[in-house]
Amino acid sequence: MAPAGDKAAADATLQAAIDKLTGEIDRISPEYDKLIDKINSCLRDASFVSPVGAYLFGRKVQGKVTELGGALKGVGDEVGKYLSASVPVFSLIDRGFGWTDNVLPDLSGAVSVARDIKPNALHAWGGEAGRAYLEKRWGQEKGLQGTTNVVKDTGQWLVDIAALNAKFLVDLTQPVIDLIEAIVEAAIELWSVIGVLEAIDTIAAAVADCLGAVLEILKEATKHMADSVSGLSQAKIIVNNNDVFPGGKWPQAVNR
Predict the structure, then answer these.
(1) What is the superkingdom listed in this entry's lineage (predicted)?
(2) 161, 89 in Cβ contact below 8 A?
């Protein structure tokens, strides 16, 4: 069973990752609005020099701005899907740790009971009765210990799942930060209409890079998730494996 501190740490780490990524996603729209204000300011300045030219250029820019806005919204929506998918992990952690906390203490105690040969002077048995007793006792101990190990492994698996989700969200945050920095930098460097289209193209490229990075991170996270699920499948195989029991069956009680 993973210690209670592991559950608290798993909860806190996952929540911190969710909060950080949520905060960065929320920054995209305000920073983009600042860029639009800067573009509009450049267009207003240009209209004093050439109203007709500024109007025609503004129409060209508008289409690109609309397209870029849609792409940025797409980034938020795409990353938001993974945020939503991470929330149920808290329920998984609570349910899982609750189960291990309830099951493991008594189960672990049963192992020591199976090892104890002194009650009813069973350790003094000899002959066929003694051999039959030992066969059943060791079978019980192995079965109980194997089941105990599976419960412990399941608790650790829950910690690993939470850590995997947290790492995925932390990794996912960096491409979003890079995208926001590209928007901020473009707004800072934009001083005239000459740089408007270049700024838009730069951010569009940053959007593509961000989504590409998200895809690569997702591929890696999927691999780790498959490994974790495989680990749980192995635990199920262990708990359902009766080969360690005498005759392939759970042993009879030693007091029969």
Answers:
(1) Bacteria
(2) yes
Does residue 151 contact residue 103 with C-beta atoms inside 8 Å?
yes
pLDDT(80) > 50: yes
> From CA 49, how far away is CA 147, in angstroms rounded?
81
**How far apart (Å, rounded) are the C-alpha atoms in residues 29 and 17?**
20
Least confident of 82-86, 103-107, 121-125: 121-125
Residue 30: Cβ within 10 Å count: 10
For residue 93 the two structure tokens come to 């952690």
Whether the per-residue pLDDT at 251 is higher than 80: the answer is: no
Task: Please determine, for residue 2, whether its predicted confidence score (pLDDT) is greater than 70.
Answer: no
DSSP secondary structure of 66-131: HHHHHHHHHHHHHHHHHHHHHTHHHHHHHHHHHHHHHHHHHHHHHHHHHH---GGGGGG--HHHHH
Look-up of token digits 């951010």: 203
* Both structure tokens of 1: 């069973």
> For the chain, first and last CA: distance in Å?
32
Among 40, 75, 37, 85, which Cα is nearest to 58's?
A: 40
Looking at residue 43, its pLDDT comes to: 78
**Residue of 111, 178, 191, 197 lying closest to 147 (CA atoms):** 111
Torsion angle of C-alpha atoms 238, 243, 244, 248, degrees rounded to 10: 130
pLDDT exceeds cutoff 80 at 1: no
pLDDT tens, position by position, 5-62:
577 777 888 888 889 988 999 988 898 898 888 888 887 777 766 676 666 667 777 8
CB contact at 8 A, 92 and 225 = no
